[in-house]
Write a structure and sequence with these properties.
Length: 124
C-alpha cells in the first residue's frame, strides 16, 4: 500500500496543524500510526488508531493531538494543537494490514508500509 502525507509546515509555539495521510488501499483493513523523527533521534511513535477506531497516544501528546480515520476517503488525520518546539520533526504515517480490529501499536517495527513524511517545525 502507498501512503502520502500532507499538511506539515512551520508554526509558532501554541499553533495548530492538521496532517493527512492518503492510503492507496482499502483503509478499513489497516492499523494506522503516526510517527515522528527529530534530527539525530530515533523514530518515535506518536499515535495509533486501530481498525475499530481505538486509539493510543504517547504521553507527551495526550490532550493536544487527535488522530482520526475516514475509511470512506481512505485517509487518516492528525490534528495537532498547542504545538511545542519539541514537537518538531519529520512526521510519518505507517500502515499494517491486520485481521485484528483493535490492535494498536506505537512500535515502528510493527508496521509494514511507510510514507515519505511531512516536516513539522515549531518555533518558540
Amino acid at each position: 500500500v502507498q501512503l502520502v502525507e500532507s499538511g506539515g509546515g512551520s508554526v509558532q509555539g501554541g499553533g495548530s496543524l492538521n496532517l493527512s495521510c492518503a492510503v492507496s488501499g482499502d483503509l478499513q483493513y489497516y492499523l494506522m500510526g503516526w510517527f515522528r523523527q527529530a534530527p539525530g533521534k530515533g523514530r518515535e511513535g506518536v499515535t495509533a488508531i486501530s481498525r475499530d477506531g481505538s486509539v493510543r497516544y504517547t504521553e507527551s501528546v495526550k490532550g493536544r493531538f487527535t488522530v482520526s480515520r475516514d475509511n470512506d476517503k481512505n485517509t487518516i488525520y492528525l490534528q495537532m494543537n498547542s504545538l511545542k518546539p519539541e514537537d518538531t520533526g519529520m512526521y510519518f504515517c505507517a500502515a499494517r494490514w491486520t485481521t485484528s480490529v483493535d490492535f494498536r501499536s506505537l512500535i515502528p517495527s510493527d508496521y509494514y508500509d511507510w510514507g515519505q513524511g511531512t516536516q513539522v517545525t515549531v518555533s518558540s
